[in-house]
Each structure stands twice: as structure tokens, then as C-alpha cells.
Specification:
By secondary structure, the protein is α+β, with helices and mostly antiparallel strands. The chain is 35% helix and 9% strand. A 4-stranded mixed sheet has the order 1-2-3-4. Helix 1 packs across helix 3 and helix 2 packs across helix 3. The radius of gyration is 15 Å and the shape is globular. The two termini are 22 Å apart. The structure holds a DNA duplex.
Length: 132
DNA sequence: CTCTTGACCACTC
DNA sequence: AGAGTGGCCAAGA
């Protein structure tokens, strides 16, 4: 398949993000069936700059902490543009530019109130190389 | 071809 | 809470 095919896989996932919602690079990679490839999602979206696309790239943020996401674009202008677009969609960003996934996250996560016992059970077991 | 950087993520100190 | 570290893989210099 053509090289762009792989990116298309990510784009397809991003396109599923409804307006007014946000997701994270890692989540996109996971939904695309390529866990651990969050970085590639970033590259794929970066490749969209200035090109004709219908990918809501602004709805993809970097994960910040447990239930928060944050704009990960290094370029100040790109980051500003993303923030503006998100606000226009109704996504409320914190003073620090963070978004609460519990409110705007996608897909809708199961509301998991922090249990009294610190049984975290390690949500991401990406220790394995995932190869072979 | 090697080295560096990157729109990442999670763990550790 | 902030900084450092390791890991993943791709693209650009």
C-alpha cells in the first residue's frame, strides 16, 4: 500500500472524534491498533500542515497527567491556532491550556472515581516492547 | 549513512 | 510538582 496509507489509518480515527471533544495521541494510536505509536500520530498530524485535509487535528492533544490533556504543539502559533479552534468548538481550556478529559474527552471514558485504596492496577502496561 | 529532533507517554527521582 | 530518563519510530539535516 502507499506510504500515506499508514497515516490515513490515524486520520480515520481522528475524524471519528466528534466536534467539541478531544482525544490524545496515545488514544488515537491505540484505537488505530498501534499502541505505543503516539509519536507517529503526532508526525502524521504534523504532516497535515498547510495541506487540504478534513482531519480535525485540533481535537488531538497530548496527555497531561491522569485525566487531563494539553496542547503538545511546540510551535507557538500552531498551539495558539489549535486552542482557538477548540474554544470555537466549545471546548473549555484551563488557564494552563489544559482540558479535562472527563468532560471533553473522547471516547467517553468510564467515570472512575478514585478509589479510597490506592489500587491503581497500572492502566498502561506498555513495558513490553510489543514486538513479536 | 549517522545524528538530532519531535504535535508522545509513563515511570522515577 | 518539576525535572530527568527510557522507549518507540519517523523524518529532516
Amino acid at each position: 500500500m502507499d506510504p500515506a496509507g499508514r497515516f490515513e489509518l490515524f486520520y480515520r480515527v481522528v475524524r471519528r472524534v466528534p466536534r467539541g471533544r478531544v482525544t490524545t495521541y496515545g488514544q488515537v494510536a491505540l484505537l488505530a491498533g498501534m499502541p505505543g505509536y503516539a509519536r507517529h500520530v503526532g508526525h502524521a498530524l504534523a504532516a497535515l500542515r498547510g495541506t487540504a485535509h478534513r482531519v480535525p487535528w485540533q481535537r488531538v492533544l497530548g496527555k497531561d497527567g491522569r485525566g487531563w490533556a494539553r496542547i503538545a504543539i511546540l510551535d507557538a502559533m500552531g498551539a495558539g491556532a489549535q486552542r482557538a479552534l477548540l474554544e470555537r468548538e466549545g471546548v473549555a481550556l484551563d488557564a494552563r491550556g489544559r482540558v479535562r478529559l472527563a468532560d471533553f474527552g473522547w471516547p467517553t471514558l468510564t467515570p472512575r472515581p478514585a478509589p479510597a485504596s490506592r489500587a491503581r492496577s497500572r492502566p498502561r502496561t506498555r513495558g513490553s516492547t510489543g514486538r513479536s
